[in-house]
């Protein structure tokens, strides 16, 4: 597609449920990032993929968070046993290579009730 | 660790008013500084950047100067338009490319009234 696509755009879930957030990066982009934007907070780095290398998971807030990137393209961020503090906008970004300009998706608004 | 602090919004201005959004940072060494903008319903976009002290980034009438002595990177525009209504994020990076891991400020919502 023309830009980074994320789905769903909005997700409401109950505390304790698992959720999956999807990101389709720009075709050909080798680097993919997940960020989180919590209410009243700045954007927080979560995880980063570069090609087929092992992802940089240094930003994941807990072991309930995990992410995969299949075939070097689509990525899924999974949050298990969601908590209310997980409520945030989850942003995905991609770049042609690591260090190049980032292109962001519109985000997924996650609300945990 | 690194941090970025922005003025809280919303900032409400009339069209053609002068805009300043303050941004200060805390970091060791010489980070690169960025402003990102998020228009309603869209993803973040890089607005401008500066990679070393005294550099001025500019784009679409917006400017910001990298001030190491005051650790600031304030965003300015001489005459805002309704179409500038958006959320603006100040950010820093250890590298000099926009793709490196970024530390963002909390964002400032700008509302411009006709």
Low-pLDDT runs of 5+ residues of chain B are none
* Gross morphology of chain A: globular
| Topology of chain A as a string of helices (H) and strands (E) | EEEEEEEEEE
Oligomer: heterodimer
Instruction: Give the biggest sheet of chain B.
Output: 6 strands, mixed
The percent of residues in helical segments of chain A reads under 10%
Major sheet summary line of chain A:
6 strands, mixed
Strand content of chain B: over 45%
- Estimate the helix proportion of chain B, in percent: under 10%
How large is the share of residues in beta strands of chain A?
Answer: over 45%
Mean pLDDT of chain A: 88
What is Rg of chain A?
13 Å
Shape of chain B: globular
Descriptive account of the structure:
- The complex is a heterodimer of chains A (113) and B (114).
- Chain A is built from no helices and ten strands.
- Chain A has strands spanning 5-7, 10-13, 19-24, 31-37, 43-50, 65-69, 75-79, 88-95, 103-104, 108-112.
- In chain A, strands 2, 4, 5, 8, 9 and 10 form a six-stranded mixed sheet that branches. A four-stranded antiparallel sheet of chain A has the order 1-3-7-6, with no helix packed on it.
- Chain B is mainly β and 114 residues long.
- Chain B has strands at residues 3-6, 11-14, 19-21, 23-26, 32-38, 44-50, 56-59, 62-65, 75-77, 86-93, 102-104, 108-113.
- In chain B, strands 2, 5, 6, 10, 11 and 12 form a six-stranded mixed sheet that branches. A four-stranded antiparallel sheet of chain B has the order 3-9-8-7, with no helix packed on it.
- At the A-B interface, strand 4, strand 5, strand 8 and strand 9 of A face strand 6 and strand 11 of B.
